[in-house]
UniProtKB/TrEMBL annotation:
UniProt source species: Anas zonorhyncha (Eastern spot-billed duck)
Disulfide bond among keywords: no
Coiled-coil intervals: 263-575
Top-level lineage group: Eukaryota
GO cellular component: centrosome; plasma membrane
Protein name in the entry: Leucine rich repeat containing 45
Transmembrane segments: none
UniProtKB keywords: Coiled coil, Cytoplasm, Cytoskeleton
Main location group: cytoplasm
Pfam families reported in the protein's UniProt record: LRR_6
Amino acid sequence: MNYLRICVKLLLHGLCSNTTVKSLDLKGNNLRTMGAEALGKLLRQNKSIRSLILEWNSLGVWEEGFSFFCQGLGANNSLQRLDLRNNQINHHGAGELAMALKRNASLQELDLRWNNIGLLGGRALLNCLHSNKALKRLELAGNNVPSDILKAVEQALDHNQDRQTILSETQNRACMLSKEILNLKDEKTKQFLDLMDTIDKQREEIARSGRISAGRVSQLQEALKEQHSIMNSVKAKLQMTEAALALSEQKVHNLGELLSAMKQEQANMVERHFAELQQQKQEGADREGKLFRDLSACSEKNLLLRNQVDELEKKCKVQQDQLFQLKQDLTNTTAELKLRAVQAEERLEMEKRRLKQSLEDMESLRLKEVDHMTQHMEASERSLQDRVQRLEAIRIALEEELSQVKAAALTERGHAEEELIKVRNQARLDEQQRLEHLQEKLRLMTESRDEAQNCCLKQKQMVSEAQAKASQLSLHADGLRRRIEELQQDLNSKEQEKVTEVNKVKVELQEQIGHLQAERTAQEGLREKIAALERQLKVLSSNHREALLDKEGEISVLLEKLRMKEADISRMREEEAQRANLLQNAIMAYVQGSPLRTHSSRK
């Protein structure tokens, strides 16, 4: 046997650093002081064992070893099942075990059948269940524990099971809500990134179109320079013709009629070119009016967008005020419920103390009466014996008197026992009435708790409505994006119109150059037309550049507003998520702190 105990001790010391063993069965090894100390050390150091079976040992015989075992159990946070059947555990050992259970938060099943716990041990285990919320199963059969204590233990274990189920449900709900919030955040970030990508692409397209237009303008400038060089060559040719005309002055008289005719044609051409210039000026004025109308329409759209943004901000402020008011109402209701629960518990404790004091008083009175009767009987017996010794002659008479005194004592004892039974029955009836009254109060408290839960559900509905409004805001932001795309399309169309206008001007310039080459006599008028056309080109290019800069400024302002709206929407969602977490934490705290929940659920 000593060799077996040493082997078990070495085994337990080796398991202290083990991390793979989940279940340990040491049934029927007659473990005593050394084994209990080794088991206490094992439970203090090992974090992997979930099940420990110690049936048919003698751990409860030596109180010091069992106390060391209980200290290790109190320090353990991984063991879930413990079997201590047939270990000779008395009420002292049960007290040590109750102290360990108060500090242990992982043990779920404890088997203490066929020990010697008794009434005191049962009370100690019942008291520890008020602070231990993890134990779900406790077997106490074969321990001489009264039935009322067993029922109270079963009620406490049912309370722990209900509490564990509610905690698991709330944790699952919290996990689901956090996952949904993370999914929403991911979706919004993806949408924001897509929007930024589209905006960057549009900016690149605008920059590319600007570069293309700048290249085209440079090409036009080069063409104008070529035309200037052609004009210079034409000027040189004119000088040569003037020299030829000086030599041919003699032919002037003959060619007078021809010159008059040519002058008439030149006048007609000047009038025609003047009409064309007026027409071009009118077209430029029409284009400027069209651009001004487009700018006014864009400004009106911006005003409408600003008004809508102000309305959305007002709605968000109203929702925040409503959520704050609901939070204050919830805190007030929880505080009232806690106060009522504390008052009910204090009343229960007062009633229990009164009942206990009355029972103790009745018991002390009964004991005093019994002692008084026994003392009276002993005194009467002593006097009778003295009289028998002194007066043997009248012994028969004294025996008759003694029998009469005994009969009277028996009758008095019977009367006293009947009165005691009546008093006990009356006390039990009073206790039942008080318990019924307390149960009615508990029912009222459960109704108030149900009302608080309904308030919490309403607040959750308000949170869902706020989320729906946030989705509406996101839809409105999508509408703003579509409007920005429409404005960009308008800009592209205007750029195309500008390109077509430049091409038209280029064609007209080419036509004018052809006319200049064909009609050398009208070169001065053509020079004036070319200068006017150059001025118009400069004005048109400057106007188009200013319009492009204004449109880019408007686009940047709209993008900044869109980013601000996205930031406000993300902030509102984060605040809503935080408020939902606060509500869940408040509900969990209320469920964990309410000791009367099990009574209401069983009803």
